[in-house]
Amino acid sequence: MISAATLDASMAGVAREVRAGDRRRRLRLAAALAVALTPGVAYSQSHAEQLNVYARTLSTTTFAEQACSGFRASASKLALARVQARITDAEDAAIADRIRESTASVTTAYARTGKDAWCADTYRLFGPDGSLVKGALERKP
Q1: What is the pLDDT of residue 110?
Q2: Under a CB-based contact definition with an 8 Å cutoff, are residues 134 and 124 in contact?
Q3: Could you tell me if 137 and 123 are in contact, meaning their C-beta atoms sit under 8 angstroms apart?
Q4: Full-model pTM
Q5: I need a labelling partner for 82 at 20 to 30 A (CA). Which of 37, 56, 68, 134 fits?
C-alpha cells in the first residue's frame, strides 16, 4: 500500500502524463508504485498511512461506480486490501472519517479532469492491470 499523498499525486500525475504523452515518466511511475504496493513494502508503512490509502481506495472506487458507467468495485479485492492493511472492525469509524475527507479531493479531481479522462485514469489505476490497488475496480459484465 502507498501513502494517501502519493495516491493523490499519482492520480493527478497520471492524468497529466497521459494527456502529455510522456510514456517514460508513466513507466517510471508505474514501476515505483509496483514496488510500493508489494506486500513486504506495504507493512513498512505506518498503520495510519495504510488506513488513509484504504479509505482513499474506497472513496475512489465508490465514486467511480456512480460516475462511470459500466464500473463496479470488487468487494473481494477491497476486502483483501483491508486484510493486507491489517484494519480491524474497531477502526471503521476512523475509516469513515477518512473517506469523507478524501471524497472531496476525488470529486475535485473528477470536476477538474472531466468524466471521460477521470474514469479512464481511475480504471487504469484500480482496474485489473491497475498500478495502485490491482483489481479494485472492474467492468460490469
Answers
A1: 95
A2: no
A3: yes
A4: 0.67
A5: 68
User: Rounded distance, CA 58 to CA 85, Å?
Assistant: 13
**Cβ(127)–Cβ(140) under 8 Å?**
no
Question: How far are the Cα atoms of 5, 38, 46, 92, 129 from residue 122, in angstroms, in the given order?
Answer: 16, 20, 25, 24, 11
State CA 73 to chain mean position distance: 11
pLDDT digit string (tens) for 33-43?
Answer: 444 444 444 44
Amino acid in the structure at residue 3: S
Mention every residue, 6+ apart, whose C-beta is less than 8 A from residue 95: 51, 54, 55, 58, 87
Look at residues 127, 131, 17, 140 and name the one whose alpha carbon lies nearest to residue 61: 127
Measured CA to CA in angstroms, residue 137 lies from 10, 71, 75, 120 at distances of: 17, 7, 9, 11
Cα(135)–Cα(94) distance, integer angstroms: 24
In this structure, what DSSP letter does residue 91 have? G
The answer to whether the beta carbons of residues 131 and 34 sit under 8 Å apart is yes
Q: Pull the grid cell for residue 13.
A: 500525475
